[in-house]
Write a structure and sequence with these properties.
The chain has 366 residues and is α/β, with parallel strands linked by helices. The protein has 14 helices and 13 strands.
Length: 366
């Protein structure tokens, strides 16, 4: 029997309906993709007994009220331990509520030599050493963590601990893709060059962490989503000027938020162009989105609309009047290595709408 997909949704009730169900499913010889939602005790029994040829696994652990069980068994939500029987065939592991035992050292006797893609969603701290040891040949990592809910001191301690564990147990040497928010990735303290990096949720308060992450991973291709004020932060400029020497392509997505209402748009673009002039980019895409700016002002806008057109904020006025062709000229003049340039503008107010300018061939960003 060869299953393309085995999806066990709410498996605890199902697996309890027959004494031999878990063992029977575990004996299936080949499964291309295994998906388990709300995995509990019976699911763990099934996973530990699994010895099939399995390529991809997605696990969502059931974690409500399991703290007492976790004290008795720290591996209760640790997929590294539960999937040991298929460690030779697994290539992709994704899931939610993963929790390795942060108090213990990585286990060197469980290695997944063929695992290439790892995607973690968790609100627990991530001990990166467990994953670098278990998945030494990883090429793609996506992290959605809850580090932003930690006390700043705990975040600092997590980063320091991850730095130490990688010195002792090794770091990834083949990682090609990394995706997550700066808040998610910063505590990992990854000290390895990564080809393509996709960062989101960059705000002024974590601009310094953006600088640290760029220094950690030193990308060739960078996609970054941030609010407009970040571009004017010294840490943004420093990150690219000091650790952006490998950069060849860059997508910069700027969402203007409430905090950007009075931002000097000309100063922002001047600062950006000055920073980019220090790089050897072959492709650059700049997307400036002003449609989110007034989301928190909904009711006041409705009242203003009945009386007349609302007054434009400073940054809106700048973008409505912006000469996109002249901006492209400035970018190409200051970054002569550019072969592909895209500028996109989204402004709801002032009647401008959406503007797209393309110079050179349309680049395919990683």
């Amino acid at each position: 029997m060869h299953l393309l997909l085995l999806h066990l949704d709410h498996p605890e009730r199902f697996l309890s309906s027959g004494k031999q169900l878990a063992q029977a499913f575990a004996k299936i010889p080949a499964i291309d993709e295994l998906v388990i939602s709300e995995a509990g005790n019976r699911s763990r029994t099934f996973l530990k007994a699994l010895s099939a040829d399995v390529q991809k696994v997605h696990i969502e652990y059931y974690c409500t009220g399991d703290e007492e069980d976790k004290e008795e068994d720290p591996t209760i939500r640790n997929p590294i331990v539960h999937l040991k029987g298929i460690c030779q065939t697994l290539t992709t592991l994704t899931g939610e509520w993963f929790d390795v035992d942060n108090e213990s050292d990585p286990t060197h006797d469980i290695v997944y030599p063929n695992l290439r893609h790892l995607e973690i969603t968790t609100f627990d701290t991530v001990n990166i050493g467990h994953f670098t040891v278990a998945f030494p040949n990883l090429t793609s990592l996506v992290v959605y963590a809850g580090e932003n809910f930690l006390d700043p001191v705990d975040e600092e301690n997590t980063r320091a601990a991850n730095q130490e564990v990688q010195v002792e147990h090794g770091r990834w040497s083949r990682l090609e893709r990394l995706k997550g928010s700066v808040t998610d990735i910063w505590p990992l303290a990854m000290d390895c060059e990564v080809e393509s990096v996709d960062l989101c949720m960059i705000l002024c308060r974590n601009a310094a962490r953006f600088r640290d992450v760029i220094a950690d991973v030193r990308p060739v291709h960078l996609s970054a989503l941030m609010n407009g004020s970040v571009v004017c932060e010294p840490d943004f400029s420093t990150a690219l000027r000091e650790d952006g020497h490998r950069l060849r392509t860059m997508q910069l997505n700027i969402d203007f938020l409430e905090m950007d209402c009075d931002l000097d748009g000309n100063a922002m673009l001047t600062s950006l162009i000055h920073t980019l002039s220090t790089l050897t980019l072959t492709a650059f895409k700049l997307r400036m989105n002003c449609t989110l700016l007034r989301r928190t002002y909904g009711y006041s806008i409705l009242r203003q609309d009945r009386a007349g057109t609302p007054d434009l904020h400073e940054i809106e006025r700048f973008l409505v009047e912006l000469d996109v062709e002249a901006l492209a000229d400035r970018l190409q003049g200051n970054v002569p290595s550019l072969q592909s340039l895209t500028v996109e503008l989204l402004v709801k107010m002032g009647g401008r709408g959406e503007v797209t300018l393309q110079r050179g061939p349309l680049a395919e960003f990683p």
